[in-house]
Amino acid sequence: MAVTDEAIAGIKQMIVSGEIGPGDRLPPEKELSEKLGLSRSSLREAVKALEVIRVLDVRRGDGTYVTSLEPHLLLEAMSFVVDLHQDDSILEIFAVRRMLEPQATALAAREASDDDVADIRSLLDSLGTDPDIDELIAHDIDFHNRVARSAGNAYLASLLESLSGRTVRARVWRAITEGGSVERTIGEHHAILDAVANRDPNLASALMTAHVAGVEEWVRRSVQ
After folding, report:
1. If you ran DSSP here, which 8-state letter would residue 164 be given?
2. Could you tell me the pTM of the whole model?
């Protein structure tokens, strides 16, 4: 194991063991390097790496703190990777979404509050009759994120959000708008929400499966 990896593993173990937790300040660099039995330069590299993936928050002149460790923070790096993927890799991302998102939607049909449903309904109703591509992308991201969040599982919602970066959505919506299927796609959003509102997890899951698979097929044709 590389020395920097050892330092990362050491800090991770301190967090996992509960020695330090969300919001806590790390010991001073000299003290921590001695505790881990590693050089201060290796420790600095480890801290930089953990800062990038939002495990640590380096505050200049104050110290280094453990972040909240909330799922949306820790999965930000995955969103970055997803946005960099080429079109053929997007199909693999859609395959993962097709497995996870219907289950999240079924869970939403069981767990979403009336306020959650009303909030998503308001989002659907707010989309104008002639939206441009940026409005469509924002709407699509917001709709899927709100449905996932209404399921009440923060880790699942954050994972799905990380698989649906803005760049990916832009590519998808360009394919859809060029094919003239905007109305059908928005109609599918309404049908999915109706199933959630009617507390029908089987129908909600089936509709989301068909919805994601349909968009996946648009992408498949566009990359051939």
Report:
1. S
2. 0.68
Angle (deg, nearest 10), helices 133-149 and 154-162: 160
Tokens 């699942």 sit on residue: 156
Q: What is the mean pLDDT of residues 171-190?
A: 74
| Residue pLDDT, tens place only, 8-58 | 999 999 998 999 999 999 999 999 999 988 888 889 999 998 888 888 999
Of 125, 153, 151, 155, whose CA–CA distance to 139 is shortest? 125
Q: How much is the pLDDT for 197?
A: 98
Q: Are 138 and 214 in contact (CB under 8 A)?
A: no
Helix (H, G, I), strand (E, B) or coil at 200: coil
Query: The domain 3-69 is classified under which CATH number: 1.25.10.10, 3.60.150.10, 3.30.70.100, 1.10.10.10?
Result: 1.10.10.10
Domain boundaries, the chain: 3-69, 74-223
Nearest residue to 153 (alpha-carbon basis) of 107, 106, 208 = 107
Cα–Cα distance between 97 and 103 in angstroms, integer? 10
Instruction: Name the phi and psi angles at 165, rounded to 5.
Output: -65, 160
CATH of region 74-223: 1.20.120.530
